[in-house]
Design brief:
8% strand; 58% helix; 295 residues; elongated; alpha+beta; three-stranded antiparallel sheet
Amino acid sequence: ISMDAAKMYIHLFDSFTIEYQGEILNMREHLSRQSLSLLEVFVLHNQKNISREFLMELFWENSDNPLSSLKFNIFRLRKLLKEIHTFQDIEFIHTEKGGYRFQPEVETIVDTSLFEKEFAAIEKAASYDDNTSVHARIIIDLYDGGLYNDTEQLWFMQKVEYFRNVFLSVTDKLCAYYLRSAQYAELKSIALKAATLEPSVEENHFYYIQALISEGDYAAAYEYYQTSTRMLVSEYAISLSEKMKELYSDIIGNNEEKKKRIQKDYGIKQEEVEYMIKRFDKRRANYYYANTAKK
């Protein structure tokens, strides 16, 4: 996103920062935990009215006087925001009939709102093409992990899970499109980001290995396959899918080109290649059996 100093940019994914007038403010350094969570709820509502009842139930369900707690915390949030020099002339929280609304007096762009807008444009697409992939790529670029939240309220957890599930679904379809259209550099970039953010999801590793194989980098594909599958089995107790297992054959195949590449990458003699392949296969089979037999 091209930044305009006159606009306010709010980032909620994996952080809580606000960019305005050339400054980048980490809101965790300026607000209390309670105020931070309260502000996040306002931002996530996309400038819609939020009822007092919703806020009281969300934050002060067990309070003896939830309305008093709400009013005090709204007052405190407004005060803390005013104490930030960059925001001293901006009203963020407006009182309305029955509730409040987050609506700064400047044009505001929020990453989660952009995420939802882009997803709405492709939500019904069973697979992606040149047009839908543009929206999908924006979604992937926007997402950097879960939201900031220091609470266990169901509403927050549902929001976090919603964004995560959309990210994974879009990633899967976009990777399939890049593989199908032979855009291997894009595939590798997207799959690696997804595998880094969500290491327990086999599909992310599968597509990254596919990209390495498609680019002819069998040595890197082999190393990553060994590392990622070992992690999936031992750390996440995941049994590998058949298509993941079949990737191993694509990496350590029987054709001469792959054998020459193995010989070159590992610095072994030609007559040792077959022995090395058999040894890897046996070690791999024993490892998976030991880690999955009791599951």
